[in-house]
């Protein structure tokens, strides 16, 4: 009989745990919202936990199953109710018309402070840096290709070296040494901030299971103390160098120094501003560049057409001016098609900041309570054959001027690589500029094709929250002798 008590306790704990995991699974049903039946622990997105495939494919399956049944669908991420938007017009409503109900107030102040740093004038001032780093990238590729490596060069690794060097120079005014032998300290530190290790994901999963009141108790700092110290010290060194050289370069660092004087920013606030742009600038842009190179490596015709456009635009000094870079229509088409097909961000979430109503397809208002996460399935919209025939094919002509460019797709609410509305990605212009410069440098100097090591089918790696291919993008580079 003595063993019955422990068994009863185990059974009671198990029952309580089960009830905790499923007690709110009727959340959407009570509100009359359609949705698939959730599973204990997993909800409707099992691969958030299992990682057998990217959870983005879970979202894609739900989108396809419920498209045409209603404008949105109620889902559960683990045990947390979320609203998956299916109708692109409703996506626009969340991003544009109704954006005040899906924004965080503390972000507004930060946004108003940094917006002036991202003008065309400041980006143009950074363009010579991009060209200089492009030259370093070509020298690095020449060295790597002479090794005759059987697996070629991994495109994302190459692009990450490039973006790290560009962003370090533009933001901190220092050279990172990303193309040199050995580890690059600043890049390793930046990558660690976006920790996507299994342990980190388990922590996030456990936090999402906890009630709101308990999350604050177990919440860990966004950044480890040693990382915080590193970037504050880096910021100090950058300021010291800038002041000693008395440079008034109209770049991001120059603007932040002016902002520090006006707003009396602390070292931590200053470091936070720079760190945000550093991480965004090197991570998402490197994914865009590598995915675009991969697309061009698989499309010889598009690659040659882009090369012809570039060669016609090169000036007497062998370079392409900032103004000309922005006027390469086929380059824009290739990048836009890559952003549709392989956008770095695959689904975006917005937290409801004010309780509001969204209208169902039956003209029935559904209350969205404050705190509910709304999922905007960019990847699913970008791969919907109703909007994009043959959606898995790389067809830059979709975005040709004759076909209206991106305008008609944006108006439909189905082209959203940078979001839309007042909360559109702040770093979009800078990201596009540095990405274009890198792609031009590679395509004008190298013929690219996929190495046999690369799986020709692009499968999103479940280990990442971004659109990164499983197994990498290994590319062979053949030097073009002009």
From TrEMBL:
Signal peptide: none annotated. GO terms for molecular function: heme binding; iron ion binding; monooxygenase activity; oxidoreductase activity, acting on paired donors, with incorporation or reduction of molecular oxygen. It is a peripheral membrane protein. Coiled coil: none annotated. It is found in: Endoplasmic reticulum membrane; Microsome membrane. Keywords: Endoplasmic reticulum, Heme, Iron, Membrane, Metal-binding, Microsome, Monooxygenase, Oxidoreductase. Its cofactor is heme. One of its GO terms (cellular component) is endoplasmic reticulum membrane. Pfam families: p450. Its main location: endoplasmic reticulum. Heme binds at residue 425. InterPro entries: Cyt_P450 (IPR001128), Cyt_P450_CS (IPR017972), Cyt_P450_E_grp-IV (IPR002403), Cyt_P450_sf (IPR036396), Insect_CytP450_Detox (IPR050476). Belongs to the cytochrome P450 family. May be involved in the metabolism of insect hormones and in the breakdown of synthetic insecticides. This is Cytochrome P450. It comes from Hermetia illucens (Black soldier fly).
């Amino acid at each position: 009989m003595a063993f019955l008590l422990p068994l009863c306790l185990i059974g009671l704990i198990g029952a309580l745990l089960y009830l905790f995991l499923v007690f709110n699974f009727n959340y959407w049903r009570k509100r009359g919202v359609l949705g698939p039946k959730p599973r204990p622990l997993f909800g409707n997105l099992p691969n958030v936990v299992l990682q057998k495939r990217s959870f983005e494919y879970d979202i894609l399956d739900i989108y396809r199953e419920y498209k045409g049944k209603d404008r949105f669908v109620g889902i559960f991420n683990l045990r947390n109710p979320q609203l998956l938007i299916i109708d692109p017009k409703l996506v626009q409503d969340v991003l544009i018309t109704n954006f005040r109900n899906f924004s965080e107030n503390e972000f507004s102040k930060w946004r108003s402070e940094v917006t002036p740093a991202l003008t065309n004038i400041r980006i143009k001032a950074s363009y010579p840096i991009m060209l200089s780093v492009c030259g370093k990238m070509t020298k690095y590729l020449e060295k790597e290709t002479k090794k005759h490596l059987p697996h070629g060069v991994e495109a994302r690794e190459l692009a990450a070296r490039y973006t790290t060097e560009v962003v370090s120079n533009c933001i901190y005014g220092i050279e990172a040494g990303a193309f040199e032998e050995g580890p690059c300290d600043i890049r390793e530190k930046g990558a660690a901030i976006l920790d996507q290790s299994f342990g980190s994901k388990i922590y996030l999963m456990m936090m999402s299971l906890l009630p709101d009141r308990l999350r604050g108790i177990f919440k860990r700092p966004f950044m480890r103390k040693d990382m915080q110290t590193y970037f504050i010290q880096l910021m100090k060194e950058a300021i010291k160098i800038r002041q000693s050289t008395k440079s008034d370069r109209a770049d991001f660092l120059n603007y932040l120094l002016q902002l520090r004087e006006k707003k009396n920013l602390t070292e931590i606030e200053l470091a936070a501003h720079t760190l945000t742009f550093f991480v965004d600038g090197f991570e998402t842009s490197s994914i865009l560049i590598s995915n675009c190179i991969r697309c061009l490596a698989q499309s010889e015709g598009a690659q040659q057409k882009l090369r012809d456009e570039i060669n016609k635009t090169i000036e007497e000094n062998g370079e392409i001016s900032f103004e000309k870079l922005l006027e390469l229509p086929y380059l824009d088409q290739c990048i836009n098609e890559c952003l549709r097909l392989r956008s770095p961000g695959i689904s975006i979430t917005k937290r409801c900041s004010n309780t509001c109503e969204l209208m169902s397809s039956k003209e029935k208002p559904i209350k969205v309570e404050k705190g509910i996460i709304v999922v905007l399935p960019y990847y699913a919209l970008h791969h919907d054959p109703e909007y994009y025939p043959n959606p898995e094919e790389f067809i830059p002509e979709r975005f040709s001027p004759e076909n209206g460019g991106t305008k008609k797709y944006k108006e439909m609410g189905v082209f959203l690589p940078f979001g839309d509305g007042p909360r559109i990605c702040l770093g979009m212009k800078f990201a596009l500029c540095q990405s274009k410069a890198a792609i031009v440098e590679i395509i004008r100097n190298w013929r690219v094709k996929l190495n046999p090591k690369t799986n020709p089918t692009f499968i999103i790696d479940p280990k990442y929250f971004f659109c990164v291919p499983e197994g990498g993008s290994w590319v062979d580079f053949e030097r073009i002798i002009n």
